[in-house]
Amino acid sequence: MNRPRTLYEKHIDSHTVCNLDDQGHVLLYIDRQVANEYTSPQAFSGLRHANRKVWRPAATLAVVDHVNPTSPDRIATMPDPGGARQVSSFGENCRDFGIELFDVLDKRQGIEHVVAPEQGFILPGMVVAAGDSHTTTYGALGAFGFGIGTSEIEHLLATQTLVYKRLKTMRVHVRGELGNGLTSKDIIMALIRRIGASGATGYAIEFAGPTIEALSVEARMTICNMAVEAGARGAFMAPDEKVYAYLADKPRAPEGALWEQAVARWRELYSDPGAEFDADIDLDVGTLEPMVTWGTSPDQAAAISDRVPDPLNEPDAVRRQDTQRALRYMGLEPGECLSDIEISHAFIGSCTNARIEDLRDAARVVRGRKVAAHVRAMVVPGSTQVRAQAEAEGLAKIFLDAGFEWRQSGCSMCLAMNDDVLSPGDRCASSTNRNFEGRQGAGARTHLMSPAMVAAAAVSGRLTDVRSLSEEA
């Protein structure tokens, strides 16, 4: 009788070409990869130098998203010379190697981890790799995605395989009904706070439980996206009827008899009863409050009703030192109420939280209100299609009437690689995934939170419990 297997084991077993040693290294077949203009140039240069071709060009989708400007009027010209070289070189490489490219002016353009799912390019059961750590996002569809380095991108393009080491498995069982104003962003931030920024290092996380099942597919993407901030190399969820419904009308999804055959196979993608995990975590979110970060690591987070922690109360010397450094950088004092912290900027965007559901959440908070006079607020949709849908639904008008900038799609201020950059001392309420020192600009200070919480901060001018605004409405 076969041993019960986890969903992770099923993915890896079905894609293993051969075992390489007794340490867990395998040659792994990769179904799909997504390339961007920032992490791929050296890989293409390596292929040219070795006179190699791309093995399966149709297995790669290329997207311009990192360095393009997001100004309200879409332009093809990159104002930054370095960015212009990256984009032009990327286009040349895609043409020469036969890879489909969604360039800046393409109506399908957007952030890779938003675009690939909305195109149906990622399907349950697939193993996906890309030169971006947040490739874990695709786990929400029942695929297994992980980020790779430039040398690995070259190897993948040339062979459609990677040398891969099996991970340990962690199951996170999430239960409890989310209260008013709570989102999947709060769930994943609570998990990261609990286990730490390295708590899942060496693991693939499977999220399960009634709370996960109740979430939409887009909300699940947020959780899988940010699992990497706990150190996970992969994160996913068993596909269900919501996933099949999400994929059914996507341009690249199977059709007709092929669709029926695919769904029948996808229904087998779950962890077998009795499958053993290397670690199990139970997370009760029934009493969870909206979360915000106060420090410079995603695990330095707290409920909005809490205060800035006192490093002297931290018994661990390393964490005490990390807290002291974070508070110096963030310009905060121990004991300060998080809800008293004023902001200068509010940013809604990124591959974590820039899908249509995220914009709807934020617009509900913003409707009928105005951005605080001292705050610059921006909305950067995750894709051109999301932008068009938001305009059709009237969301763009709500944001514009409130005083938000309504911009074009791209990574934007998530990592400040274009002209969307904060200045030293600026403090931003952000729906992004990382709050490292300098992440949004040298000397800039970032507080992570859900899009609805960003919207609340934008209209209040400070970090604010979004539930208090709901009560005022």
TrEMBL record:
Positions of [4Fe-4S] cluster binding: C351, C411, C414
GO biological process: L-leucine biosynthetic process
UniProt keyword list: 4Fe-4S, Amino-acid biosynthesis, Branched-chain amino acid biosynthesis, Iron, Iron-sulfur, Isomerase, Leucine biosynthesis, Lyase, Metal-binding
Note on cofactor: Binds 1 [4Fe-4S] cluster per subunit.
Pathway annotation from the record: Amino-acid biosynthesis; L-leucine biosynthesis; L-leucine from 3-methyl-2-oxobutanoate: step 2/4
Superkingdom of the source species: Bacteria
Signal peptide from the UniProt entry: none
Names of the cofactor(s): [4Fe-4S] cluster
Any matching Pfam family: Aconitase
MF terms in GO: 3-isopropylmalate dehydratase activity; 4 iron, 4 sulfur cluster binding; isomerase activity; metal ion binding
Acetylation in keyword set: no
EC number, as in UniProt: 4.2.1.33
Keyword Transit peptide assigned: no
Reactions listed under catalytic activity: (2R,3S)-3-isopropylmalate = (2S)-2-isopropylmalate
Aconitase/3-isopropylmalate dehydratase large subunit alpha/beta/alpha domain span: 12-461
UniProt record similarity statement: Belongs to the aconitase/IPM isomerase family. LeuC type 1 subfamily.
Function field: Catalyzes the isomerization between 2-isopropylmalate and 3-isopropylmalate, via the formation of 2-isopropylmaleate.
Oligomer status and interactors: Heterodimer of LeuC and LeuD.
Protein name in the entry: 3-isopropylmalate dehydratase large subunit
